[in-house]
Amino acid sequence: MSEHIIVFTGAGISAESGLKTFRDMGGYWHEHRIEDVATPEGFSANPQLVLDFYNQRRREVLAAQPNAAHRAIAALEERFTVSVITQNIDDLHERAGSSRVIHLHGELLKGQSSRDASLVLPLQKPEILPGELAPDGSQMRPHVVWFGEAVLRLDEAAEAFAQADKVLVVGTSLSVFPAAGLLQYTPDDAERVLVALDVQRRPEGFAFWRTNATEAVPRLVGQWLGRAGIPENDGSSPR
């Protein structure tokens, strides 16, 4: 049986494809009030504003392309069983070729009923418009986890982490919970690597590469596919 690799990704990997982050300086939460565009209450108060906000995010995602880090992660499937667990709502992992992706915070290219969160369907066009209804007759809304809503597929993700032989964390500050708490399920004997430019806390047992995903991930994946070991690293950059 092949080794099981968990790849846990955040906004940093998508930022290297040109997608603006939400939390970083200059990100969306510095331009828009969270309460207005990322809560059920904001949607009820001004659905047009919320739909317009995510319609623009959707157009940006469709214009973006997977980068070298996305493609390298997909290449791991040549030899390993790979589960990608992502906090991102874009589809760049799928377009790069990853076949098993768990989206914790939803998928921007899908819509859902505003009445029944389990009623989810792919969007056939980039926009969701006011008056556009889900099959149950309710207003369609983005399939995105808003503040105050439950993270998706959390139990499934925790089970995957618990079965990991290797864990690769890419492009996340590990500051968003409960998603960041998934790392606690990593087996003690699993090989663990963190690739990020900034983290609020360095998780115990992780080799830390403070560099861009497009620089570090292809090299690390090449080592793993070549059955080479990971070199000692001082946290500044892969050598």
UniProtKB/TrEMBL annotation:
Substrate binds at residues 54, 57. Signal peptide: none annotated. It is found in: Cytoplasm. Its main location: cytoplasm. Its EC number is 2.3.1.286. Coiled coil: none annotated. Residues 1-228 form the Deacetylase sirtuin-type domain. The active site is at 105 (proton acceptor). It is an enzyme of class 2 (transferase). One of its GO terms (molecular function) is protein-succinyllysine desuccinylase activity. The keyword rRNA-binding does not apply. GO terms for cellular component: cytoplasm. NAD(+) binds at residues 10-29, 87-90, 171-173, 213. InterPro entries: DHS-like_NAD/FAD-binding_dom, NAD-dep_sirtuin_deacylases, Sirtuin, Sirtuin_cat_small_dom_sf, Sirtuin_class_III, Ssirtuin_cat_dom. Gene3D superfamilies: SIR2/SIRT2 'Small Domain, TPP-binding domain. It catalyses: N(6)-acetyl-L-lysyl-[protein] + NAD(+) + H2O = 2''-O-acetyl-ADP-D-ribose + nicotinamide + L-lysyl-[protein]; N(6)-succinyl-L-lysyl-[protein] + NAD(+) + H2O = 2''-O-succinyl-ADP-D-ribose + nicotinamide + L-lysyl-[protein]. Keywords: Cytoplasm, NAD, Transferase. Pfam families: SIR2. NAD-dependent lysine deacetylase and desuccinylase that specifically removes acetyl and succinyl groups on target proteins. Modulates the activities of several proteins which are inactive in their acylated form. Belongs to the sirtuin family. Class III subfamily. 2 residues (Tyr-54 and Arg-57) present in a large hydrophobic pocket are probably involved in substrate specificity. They are important for desuccinylation activity, but dispensable for deacetylation activity. This is NAD-dependent protein deacylase. It comes from Corticibacter populi. The lineage of its organism: Bacteria, Pseudomonadati, Pseudomonadota, Betaproteobacteria, Burkholderiales.
